[in-house]
Amino acid sequence: MKVVCLNPSHGGSDTGVTCPGIEEKDINLEVALKVGAYLKNYKVHALFTRETDKSLTMENRAKIAAENKAEVLLDIHFNVYKEKDVNGFETFISPMESAIAQKYQEIIHRWIYSYVGTLGIADRGRKFGNYNLLNMCYSRNVVGILLQYLYISNPPGAKLAKDGEVLDKLSYYTAEGIVKAMNLHTS
Ligand SMILES: [Zn+2]
Predict the structure, then answer these.
(1) Which residues surround ligand 1, an ion (CB under 5 A)?
(2) Cα 79 to ligand 1 centre (Å)
(3) From its phi and psi, is residue 127 left (phi > 0), alpha (psi between -120 and 50) or beta?
(4) Among the CATH numbers 3.30.300.20, 3.40.190.10, 3.40.630.40, 3.20.20.370, which is that of 3-181?
(5) What's the 14 CA to ligand 1 centre distance in angstroms?
(6) What is the pLDDT of residues 1-22, one digit of tens each?
(7) 185 CA from centroid of ligand 1 (Å)
(8) pTM greater than 0.70
């Protein structure tokens, strides 16, 4: 069975980014759990680095993915920026990554943006990012893909991130992206 690792970033004392009423660690977990629920219809093992509010090192997260032979690790985030009018969706893979990883990123990015675009959020694009977790995944033969859905420092973005239906749809389209990228079949 194929394995995908869902990584709700941050957790425990590490809240991630915040805005009034939102701690990133909580919405990351909510989205990850929902992505996992949508993937239950498919022949895939959706593995979580955490299913509760706890802290984990990057090393732990990469290890969980590698030891369970995950093909892909999805690193789930929301973003902030000092200028409040900035918003947008972007995805990253390690600069060392292969053409296959770029293909995964392209498909997952396109599926998620097919929904995010309808919310009036800009596409900041597919990028390479020198992030520790992505590089650790790469060195363990796991394709790490970092998702930054939107900016909660942007007032309309914060409103979207507080909307359970929006988080549910983000999760649905993320799951669909994984299904298409990993070529999963219904069980
Ligand atoms: Zn984050």
Answers:
(1) 9, 16, 77
(2) 6
(3) beta
(4) 3.40.630.40
(5) 10
(6) 999 999 999 999 999 999 999 9
(7) 31
(8) yes
